[in-house]
Design a protein that fits this description.
196 residues; mainly alpha; 10 helices; 0% strand
């Protein structure tokens, strides 16, 4: 038992050194702990509704690591919540330039374009996420809402039905979210029937 514990401790020490080496190789001047605590602090500011302060925290962190997709994504989230949609789009696009497979940044771009009333752009980014993470119920819900805004009732019903199915499969299912998906699905189906 002691020998196994020793190997486990050695494993975590080596993993920590490798992570630290990654940041040194990439030119970061902050420790892993400082990096993580900076993200956590910025996220807590977002949760507290202090979006401009959060943006400042992420902007400062980006000085040490300018191509970090996670930091750029959080900067975009803070800008979005502050109502700075142009700044949010720039941050999310920078995140995608750094990591073209970063699904959350595509999803957030879709949300931002929806908020800007640019619904076709929103759908374009949601479609890109589906190619990366097709089983995200919240994504399908957002697609359904965007299609509703475009009065594409068939497409909205399809997206919302998928959201209901995926949400119900979660373990445990989020009954509140699934209930909301169902309400919008019922509305979209009603509109489909009215237009026949």
């Amino acid at each position: 038992m002691v020998k196994k514990r020793g190997y486990l401790i050695l494993f975590f020490i080596m993993a920590g050194l490798l992570i630290a080496l990654f940041f040194v190789v990439n030119g970061a001047s902050v420790s892993v702990v400082e990096y993580r605590s900076g993200i956590d602090h910025g996220v807590s500011l977002i949760v507290d509704g202090k979006y401009d302060e959060a943006a400042s925290v992420f902007t400062e962190a980006l000085e040490s690591n300018p191509d970090d997709p996670e930091l750029l994504n959080y900067l975009g989230i803070s800008r979005f919540n502050a109502g700075d949609y142009t700044g949010a789009v720039k941050a999310f696009n920078r995140a995608l330039k750094a990591d073209p497979s970063f699904a959350r940044a595509y999803h957030n771009l879709g949300l931002t374009y929806h908020a800007m009333g640019r619904y076709y752009h929103a759908l374009e980014y949601y479609e890109r996420v589906i190619n990366l993470e097709a089983d995200d119920d919240l994504l399908h819900y957002h697609m359904g809402l965007t299609r509703m805004a475009l009065r594409d009732w068939d497409g909205a019903a399809e997206s919302l039905e998928t959201a209901v199915t995926l949400g119900a499969r979660k373990n445990p299912p989020d009954d509140k979210a699934v209930g909301e998906y169902r309400r919008y699905l019922e509305y979209a189906l009603k509109r489909v029937e009215e237009e026949k």
